[in-house]
Amino acid sequence: MFETRGRTITEADIVSFAGLSGDFIELHTNEEFAMKTPYGKRIAHGALIFSVSIGLMTQMNTIADTVLAFYGVDKLRFTKPVFIGDTVRVVKKVVEGKELGPARGVVTFETNVLNQNGVVVVAYRDKLLLKRRGDSNAA
Amino acid sequence: MFETRGRTITEADIVSFAGLSGDFIELHTNEEFAMKTPYGKRIAHGALIFSVSIGLMTQMNTIADTVLAFYGVDKLRFTKPVFIGDTVRVVKKVVEGKELGPARGVVTFETNVLNQNGVVVVAYRDKLLLKRRGDSNAA
Amino acid sequence: MFETRGRTITEADIVSFAGLSGDFIELHTNEEFAMKTPYGKRIAHGALIFSVSIGLMTQMNTIADTVLAFYGVDKLRFTKPVFIGDTVRVVKKVVEGKELGPARGVVTFETNVLNQNGVVVVAYRDKLLLKRRGDSNAA
Amino acid sequence: MFETRGRTITEADIVSFAGLSGDFIELHTNEEFAMKTPYGKRIAHGALIFSVSIGLMTQMNTIADTVLAFYGVDKLRFTKPVFIGDTVRVVKKVVEGKELGPARGVVTFETNVLNQNGVVVVAYRDKLLLKRRGDSNAA
Amino acid sequence: MFETRGRTITEADIVSFAGLSGDFIELHTNEEFAMKTPYGKRIAHGALIFSVSIGLMTQMNTIADTVLAFYGVDKLRFTKPVFIGDTVRVVKKVVEGKELGPARGVVTFETNVLNQNGVVVVAYRDKLLLKRRGDSNAA
Amino acid sequence: MFETRGRTITEADIVSFAGLSGDFIELHTNEEFAMKTPYGKRIAHGALIFSVSIGLMTQMNTIADTVLAFYGVDKLRFTKPVFIGDTVRVVKKVVEGKELGPARGVVTFETNVLNQNGVVVVAYRDKLLLKRRGDSNAA
Fold first, then answer.
1. HSE (CB half, 13 Å, CA atoms) of D19?
2. If you count residue pairs, one on B and one on C, with CB atoms under 8 Å apart, how many are there?
3. What is the ipTM of this complex?
4. Mutation target among A3, A16, A65 for the F interface, most CBs of F within 10 A
5. Residue of C nearest to D80 (CA)
6. Which domain holds residue F88?
């Protein structure tokens, strides 16, 4: 099991993500609108939290610089809202590993993104091509 | 079937996405490194193209402002690299629809992101809670 | 009459706009300075609100993808300050329309940007070249 | 007559402005689309050039820190396209000045934004409340 | 002695700087983590304040557009934390000047960055190649 | 000796850094101006390369998450220009180490930032408070 560092999701992150993705859905960009929804305030884009969870993984000592390819993701679920000021971290559990010769392997992770209260906010299963650390052959 | 407008993926998008997600994997941020990989040059983050595909969907006349919730994504696959300067657009096909009363429904789409040559670069199946256009009850 | 969705103007928007435009006038960037002005706190750049009002218009179902050219703007007035956290929306009224053949027309709008209290914060008159929806001839 | 420094309009500026304003009109964001228009390639948003022209003005030694209020703009015209890589600068001519006591005045400028070939790309008439340099009374 | 305008350091600045520099050290990006450090909350990156201090200098009437080269910096010290919402300004004192012909000179400054309470938060000694104002020969 | 990954410095990085720092000196932002200087084209801000070098250090497996405090920098020199498209990496050599009890130490590095041709573009000496890896006591 791997656990990443945490990161606080800021209003600036949501504003930047709206601008970068082009998703200006009012639940993310209009506080007056969001106040009248069951959430009561603006929430982060699900794809932002998913993207941050990948970034946090690449910053882990154990995984960083060993990722050769990102095959895909399954059962990506946005289970709980993430609000401005929430802090997320990622817990990854290996659920399957397949050797591809001596230096590489395909690893499937069960990934959970948790907020500061330990509640799972995003969950998914991701498959990556990793190289063994120390393998100097980049790709 | 719905088709979104297109968007050119720029170097600035990749740089911004690295900074926003925290994913500085060299295949996205180091041209010298990328030159020595089979890709031959930097490629866009898969999660960036996924994020842009959601943004493009929200800009469609037919869907914009009808999205009430984003349940999840399955079989998200990064099938081909997206390079700086490629232009992507999104094609969505309804594969399942379930009515939730008179004004809402859960719709499952088969989504393909294509580049300027019509090649699928990202594919996924997404499930959304949509409201009927004209329904004034926001959430 | 058209009305756009709303958007909350955040501190991040003002910071980004200062950096993008290069306008670091202290009323926008220095809270200590702004506290001593009649406004009492930092205010958004007028040109930011003007720019956001155009963005909001392009996100309207009725207008998006029909804009062929933006001729100009008259009587652009910054009537009231917009503060961090205010939510603006745009109301556009056609004041003049001229057909340019069967598929295009020049439309002049009276545009008002309102905050969450219904107060006009920016007003202008803008002239656009629009195509009829369904016209497949892009430009 | 005042002349500002110049600034090269980059692809990154256009991408940032699309994200900040929310204006993703394809002429600014889709190179494939833009290739088929009379422009032949993506062009900068008119409101970006207008915004940059204000930023350049605030960076002038003669005007910076003397701007107390921005009253409004008239006859804003987007006369020529600005392409990626073009360099713009601003020329301002006082066309009217009104004293408001000993330390302040309302000044109307005829403003032209020129590209590297000396062609006017944006033009407008703007009215500002300026204080005399050396006036320590901030607002 | 020169004193620049002030600038409020926002959460958006810290988020942008983390993304631009790639420094996601948790003291800058994780509020939960920072709460348990002696600082009690997130602090700005030292290099952000250093960078802003150079930007503020270039916006001074007396120095802007006279900087020909930036030789180097000595004794750069991050003496006190800068928190979100603090407002910094820069005070520069000439400590050495060397003429390089009639139009240029190398100037060494003792530079202090102060917060809104007058406390020095960053200090350094910087050496610049400046031209005399009015010298039309750009470089 | 430690060596970081590399990072390509893009036009988008320079544009973002100008906006974040407020340093719009024309050598960084005006291609027409820069063409007439001895550099022949726009160069990156020295403080941008310095900031990126810190970011690259924090992404190293050996150092990331062990930085407790950044004391200061000496002899920071901008020895060669960095152009758009150059790729920089950082080499750090310990020149002094002082134990502060069993779990912490102050380390002084001789740091060189090199471009893709192995030329030193920025050099400095930096002093950091580091904790031993495995020390669970955050600060």
1. 27
2. 10
3. 0.92
4. A65
5. C71
6. 2-131
